[in-house]
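hiii so um. not sure if this is the right channel but i have a protein structure encoded as tokens and i wanna go backwards to a sequence. like what aa goes where. can anyone help
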């Protein structure tokens, strides 16, 4: 394969589950001349930040064979100096980068070798990481220095905060709607039933509401159902099923815009049954419904643009513009955030899961801890 472009582009796992796949770029480096590919999405909610940095160049050989050579697609840790600086407002002077460290104004990322699943590219990869706790505001600047030549590749992203769990629309109140495990056992105002999630009325329209946050464009919403398996051996296992909703996009980047997704309660049971059918059900004595998580992941405008440009084309015309916000290289450097709220389930909801025709075959117990085939 002559003049084939060797690329390595990480699209497989984007942090708030926003994914895209692409293995070719129309940006070509002169034959034999090396270019830099960058993929990094900072998330202040994560305990570890990871940035992927790879080599891109034209090769006169077979690109598929070259892709299996870890030395041709990876930088050695001795070749790069990778760092982060933080800036606020229009100030050109770096400020503090790490929450809890009153002196740190630069984060130096460390190289780490990882093993990915087998595929076109060699599974032995090198990524750059830091465990520093990032701020949720300001701009972070990525600086990649090629030690041999002194060349610097840079990129800047504005950080975004999380959707606030204490905002009124986001199914939250520390007393009236406690989080998972904070059970209401006394009092009639509110009644215990009002403190739990109840999707037992199948025809009811349910909504997940929240307000947009400043500088975030893209929102991914997941309703995660947690359950506990009791095994024939006496042991227990935990598992979960996701109900994924269509992406939402805010009309502006100001923040405070009311957003929501809605669904029929019956669709929850249909989705749960479909997903449980994909799981291994051997050695299960019974299952217990545990609790719900409402997960909202937000992405910055640059991430939204990157995914939009690189999404598959549905037309005959396959030539599309390239998007990169990397100065001196190609790729994406952006930010995301994550907000999670947990809630417990009302007994009627648990009972309905046990007897609904889509979920009954999977051994879910009633709120009384019994399996049933008799449903009202």
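sure thing!! here u go:
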């Amino acid at each position: 394969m002559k003049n084939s472009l060797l690329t390595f582009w990480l699209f497989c796992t984007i942090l708030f589950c926003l994914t895209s796949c692409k293995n070719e770029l129309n940006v070509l480096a002169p034959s034999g001349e090396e270019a830099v590919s960058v993929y990094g999405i900072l998330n202040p909610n994560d305990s570890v930040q990871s940035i992927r940095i790879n080599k891109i160049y034209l090769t006169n050989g077979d690109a598929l064979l070259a892709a299996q050579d870890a030395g041709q697609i990876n930088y050695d840790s001795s070749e790069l100096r990778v760092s982060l600086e933080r800036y606020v407002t229009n100030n050109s002077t770096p400020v503090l980068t790490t929450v809890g460290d009153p002196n740190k104004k630069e984060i130096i990322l460390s190289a780490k070798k990882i093993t990915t699943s087998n595929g076109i590219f060699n599974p032995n990869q090198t990524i750059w990481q830091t465990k520093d706790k990032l701020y949720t505001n300001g701009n972070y600047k990525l600086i990649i220095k090629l030690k041999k030549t002194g060349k610097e590749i840079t990129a800047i992203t504005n950080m975004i905060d999380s959707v606030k769990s204490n905002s009124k629309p986001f199914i939250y109140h520390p007393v009236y709607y406690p989080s998972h495990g904070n059970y209401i056992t006394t009092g009639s105002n509110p009644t215990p039933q009002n403190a739990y999630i109840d999707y037992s009325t199948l025809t009811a329209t349910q909504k997940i509401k929240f307000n947009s946050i400043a500088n975030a464009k893209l929102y991914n919403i997941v309703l995660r159902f947690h359950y506990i398996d009791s095994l024939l051996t006496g042991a227990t296992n935990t598992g979960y099923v996701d109900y994924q909703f269509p992406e939402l996009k805010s009309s502006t980047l100001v923040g405070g815009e009311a957003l929501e997704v809605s669904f029929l309660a019956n669709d929850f049971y249909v989705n749960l049954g479909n997903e449980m059918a994909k799981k291994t059900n051997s050695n299960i004595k019974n299952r217990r419904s545990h609790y719900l998580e409402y997960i909202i992941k937000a992405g910055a405008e640059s991430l939204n643009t990157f995914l939009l440009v690189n999404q598959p084309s549905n037309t005959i015309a396959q030539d599309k513009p390239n998007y990169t916000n990397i100065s001196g290289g190609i790729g994406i450097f952006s930010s995301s955030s994550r907000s999670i709220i947990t809630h417990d389930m009302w007994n009627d909801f648990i009972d309905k899961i046990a007897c609904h025709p889509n979920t009954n075959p999977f051994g879910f117990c009633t709120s009384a801890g019994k399996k049933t085939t008799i449903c009202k």
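oh and The first helix runs from residue 63 to 67.
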